[in-house]
Amino acid sequence: MVESSSRAVVGIFTYLDDALEAVKKVKESNLDYRMYSPVPRHEIEEVTYPEKSPVRTVSLIAAMTGCMCGFTLAIMCSLDWPMRTSAKNIASIPAFFVPGYEWTILFGGLGTLLAILIFCRIPTVVRAAGYDPRFSHDKFGVVVACMGSQVDAVKQQLSDSGADEVDIQDSL
Amino acid sequence: MKHIHNEHESESEAPVTYAEVNDTVLKMLEPPGTGWFLLLFTCIFFLVIGASSWFYQMWSGYGESGNSIPIGWGTYITNFVFWVGIAHSGTLISAVLYLFRAAFRQPIYRLAEAMTVFAVMTAGLFPVIHVGRPWYALWLIPYPNERALWPNFRSPLLWDVFAVSTYFTISATFFFVGLIPDIAAARDRATTKFRKALYGVTCLGWRGSHTQWKHYQAAYLIFAALATPLVVSVHSVVSWDFAMSIVPGWHATIFPPYFVAGAIFSGVAMVITLAIPLRKAFNLHRLITPVHFDAMSKLILLTSGVVSYSYITEFYTAWFSNNPFERFQFWFRPFGEYWLPFWGMTFCNCIAPQLLWIKSLRTNIAFLFVLSIIINIGMWLERFNIIFQSLTREFIPAAWGGYNFSWVEVGITVGAFGWFGMWMTLFIKFFPSVAITEIKEILPPPMRRAKHDHGQVSAVNSH
């Protein structure tokens, strides 16, 4: 990963296609990289991370757990404090669909939040290598982790791809 | 999307850029002026009136409210349903329209989401106020206790606890998750120590790397998918508070869709009420354009139609049922002692919105502002009609009665607007109330060579 390497070469791009071309070259060189952008774009996903995100698996498991907990809570509480209404069952499943349904969504949502925190590695207080405030404004960034001997070649790659600026920083 | 001219035609010739979006939205966070403080203190003043009225009611007793036999549910429950309804369209705009990829939602959805969260916070106060002794409100929650006493899970009132608490939690989470990248943008521009700390903590260290965006997008889609059934379920459950009873005027199967449509109707009207002054105050004419007001007007027109149809259906069902109590109830509403709220509701919700068939009025900002307020008055009257009129004339004439508004209820109602307004006012000054990232998403990305192939028409740049 970027953090474990000794140097970070930071390319700052105005144009998305330039940044993507740089990423493709870096991938061909088999180097670790991180791309920053002010906005999510499908073009970036296709080049950098075409696989499916595991977030949805976490959400599904959490939602199923919520459904089970909602029904269990309603059934167990009703059995513990039985109130017979006409000839209806103490555990009235149709009436318990509401708590079951609501908790499916509640747990699913909280599970999704947890998944974001885990997979996006937030919250964090660690400074990201090569991050520039312009990346949340209107610039795209490609940060490449490399050894000292590779710095010049990587710098050339980023410049050739159309980087406005190329900076070299100590990798964290 | 059709080309729509606006009053800032000359400004809007150049396309909106990423940098302009940041600059325009983050400019809203600059130190506030006198107008903002005036608004905040007005809201706090109303809030103090509400809080004082509530404390007076607790001190002096529940008899200070107008609730009495036979009308046990009065102003407080009307306010509860009204505010839950207001909350509704936030999730519709943020989640449902996201799933449908409706580009017109982007500049207004953050405001709608903030409105949702603060409106649910307001709505949640009313059942607590209504029970009279708020310190026992925790009995609504199923928690282990020494008497092994549990709430009744077959009661719609408990369903409401589950529905509203889930709605608040998910709406607030969805709202916060949507804010994270925008807060990071605010952090990167913050100059004061306070702002740096505030945004540094609340953006959770977000940087916008490709892996973060990947998981974020996946999660956001799931949040939208989870929040969508909530839009339908919450107000359906609220409607069951009434429909599951046998009170004439309440016991109707049409209530869930009727309530959901009414909630979207009132919520979109409230978004317009809030968006127009915000747009004016912060010069957001290039981000919130007549295209957006036109789209919201069409949504109002649609939901007004559904609501009007529901009103007619209620009357038809009462007639067709041949049930004398139902028939009497629906005769009493328009022609009985309390005809004014009924006809006020009909005018505000069914007749006035029909003006939106005229295209020029759909983009007439001053007209829309007035109409949105009329609609919200109408929707408050609708809830009042359903709740109050039905209880005032139940089955036995000996049990009929009237309702006396008390100044305490009026004070608390005013206080609710102060509470809601205070949170909205604070929010627009401390956090981005227009979604930076999502507006950028509908803009064509800067490309040196290839033209972007997204194929999506930019609602922001379409005028």
Low-confidence stretches of chain A: none
Strand order of the largest sheet of chain A: 2-3-1-4
- Give a count of the beta strands of chain A, DSSP E runs of length 2 or more: 4
Q: How would the global form of chain A be characterised?
A: rod-shaped
Shape of chain B: globular
Task: Write a structural description.
The complex is a heterodimer of chains A (172) and B (463). Chain A has 172 residues and is an alpha+beta fold. A four-stranded antiparallel β-sheet of chain A has the order 2-3-1-4, covered by helices on one side. The model of chain A has no long low-confidence stretch (mean pLDDT 91). Chain A is rod-shaped. Chain A is built from five helices and four strands; from the N terminus they run βαβαααβαβ. Chain B is mainly α and 463 residues long. Chain B is built from 15 helices and no strands. In chain B, α5 crosses α6 (193-202). Residues 1-11 and 453-459 of chain B have low confidence and may be disordered. At the A-B interface, α1, β2, α2, α3 and α4 of A face α1, α5, α7 and α15 of B.
Keywords, please?
heterodimer, A: 172 residues, alpha+beta, 4-stranded antiparallel beta sheet, 5 helices, rod-shaped, B: 463 residues, mainly alpha, 15 helices, disordered N terminus
Describe the structure in brief:
The complex is a heterodimer of chains A (172) and B (463). With 172 residues, chain A is an alpha+beta fold.
Write the layout of secondary structure elements.
The complex is a heterodimer of chains A (172) and B (463).
Chain A: E1 7-13, H1 16-28, E2 32-36, H2 42-48, H3 55-80, H4 93-119, E3 140-146, H5 151-161, E4 165-170
Antiparallel strand pairs in A: 1-3, 1-4, 2-3
Chain B: H1 18-27, H2 34-60, H3 75-99, H4 106-130, H5 156-189, H6 193-202, H7 210-243, H8 255-281, H9 290-321, H10 324-335, H11 339-351, H12 359-362, H13 365-392, H14 407-430, H15 436-441
Helix pairs in contact in B: 2-14, 3-4, 3-7, 3-8, 3-13, 4-5, 4-8, 4-14, 5-6, 5-7, 7-8, 8-9, 8-13, 9-10, 10-11, 11-13
